[in-house]
Amino acid sequence: MTIFLLCLMLVCVMPFLAKVPLAVAMQRSGGYDNRHPRAQQQSLEGFGARANAAHYNCFEAITYFAPAALAVLALTTVGATHVYLAAAFVVCRIVYLFCYWYDIDKLRSIMFVAGLGISVALFATLL
Questions:
Q1: What's the start-to-end Cα distance of the chain, in Å?
Q2: Per residue of the chain (127 residues), what is the pLDDT tens digit?
Q3: Which positions are tagged coiled coil (predicted)?
Q4: At what angle do helices 47-75 and 2-17 cross, to 10 degrees?
Q5: H helix runs in the chain, sequence order
């Protein structure tokens, strides 16, 4: 269960980890504007724009993984299948981030669908 909880925690922390490349891109585009960071983020292009989108998508991923993970925790004993699925989700999300940052669009989409499928699979284990 520890690995399962670590995966849940990592997914919840991932948006803040994904902020690092975004902050670097913002710094390179004239300095980090701490007074109006969202306006600066919206003006980014290329890598910076992709880093911004990847950052926000991490928050979105929480909305479909966390409920599935929490349902598993609440309704059943965490088994090996749950741990493998949670670890696979984290791997998909990490690959997803790198694909977003480096503009590998097709693999990024595959990783998104795989992550979504993993969340559905977690729910399916409860049926």
A1: 20
A2: 799 999 999 999 999 999 999 999 999 999 999 999 999 999 999 999 999 999 999 999 999 999 999 999 999 999 999 999 999 999 999 999 999 999 999 999 999 999 999 999 999 999 9
A3: none
A4: 150
A5: 2-17, 19-28, 37-43, 47-75, 80-101, 105-124
